[in-house]
Queue: 2 jobs
Job 1
Amino acid sequence: DIITGIGSGVLISIFVGFFLAGRAWVPIRNAWDKQQRFVADASHELRTPVSVIRAQTELLLRYPSHSIERESDNIAVILKESTRMSKLLEDLLTLARSDSNQLELECSVFSLDRVLLDLTKQFKLLAVTKEIDIDLSLQEPLPFWGDESRIRQLLVILLDNALKYTPSNGRIEVSGKSSAHHVTVIVSDSGRGIPKEELPYLFERFYRGDKSRSRKEGGTGLGLSIAKWIVDAHGGTIRAESQTGAGSRFELRFPRKNKAAL
Ligand code: ADP
């Protein structure tokens, strides 16, 4: 009975997974399409974790005498899927608020060099297990006018992707510098790269390259669209350069605002 239960849970997850993985990416034509697609994609993305959580919970309820130890794998699945769902909901909320202009930046002057140093330190700890080197090249000081927590969020998205899509023993390089008119941050990696034909869709909501693989790596396909919103809100640009198998390079460029304060 328990085998049938586990089997049906796994089957539901596989079915929903394949359903999502198999959907072809169609370019968006207009604002109405965009809105409809956002709602449809959000529902599909939420359906997977909800189905898995329901199936696993039904399974647990079927065997009330089983110990937590015995069911720990099933409980771990519930935890993993609910964590994924919270992240998805948080990202959806950010995008919905940004659409309705409810998100305001809280700008101040802060040290971008300190933020880059902090984040690379944190990511170095995460990169140890994959034996990935993270190299930081920094111009100091690097004062910046903007919303520090949003800029951190943006850099976390880029570093997180670099780490996710770079296999073991790879390399991530981060640099930050300023010129007379711009502040430039580059995050590049020696990872799997992005096929040229995918580059135009990269910043679209829910776009995931290799869908089944990205989902396995915890991706929701919302990271880069949030990154783009943060960059736009700061009056900057984000550019991706990549080739399959040749790593990726993301360049952020911001105007140097409020020069008196910098
Ligand atoms: P996800 O949550 O899937 O990572 P993102 O919006 O952050 O969503 O990225 C969209 C897609 O862009 C990813 O699914 C992946 O295919 C591709 N991508 C982003 N960053 C990188 C990178 N550094 N190397 C390779 N592919 C990347």
Note: Residues 157, 161-162, 165, 189, 191-194, 202, 207-209, 214, 219-224, 248 surround adenosine-5'-diphosphate (CB under 6 Å).
Job 2
Amino acid sequence: GHRDETDLAVKPRAKTQRPPMYKVLLLNDDFTPMEFVVHVLERLFAMSHAQAIEIMLTVHRRGVAVVGVFSHEIAETKVAQVMELARRQQHPLQCTMEKE
Ligand code: TYC
């Protein structure tokens, strides 16, 4: 392996463990209003209005887009918040997460 400045052997596998990260995905459907999706992206993912429109249109055209990458706990919370807002407004919007 490498040697550090003190000339000690450094184990190549002794790297700091990083926590796994999770992509939060927004899915398209035919019924959720575009303006509701933009509102969700602004409120829950701290996007500017222009950014939110861009991501919403990507989902609309391609079927799915990554809206953020977070730790497991934060990703779970974001998914739950999106699903709760959609449920309250009776929109079929779906949000899910997957390991990066
Ligand atoms: N396809 C929807 C419409 O035409 C808009 C939409 C965009 C819905 C993104 C969901 O995640 C979504 N009203």
Note: The longest strand covers residues 64-70.
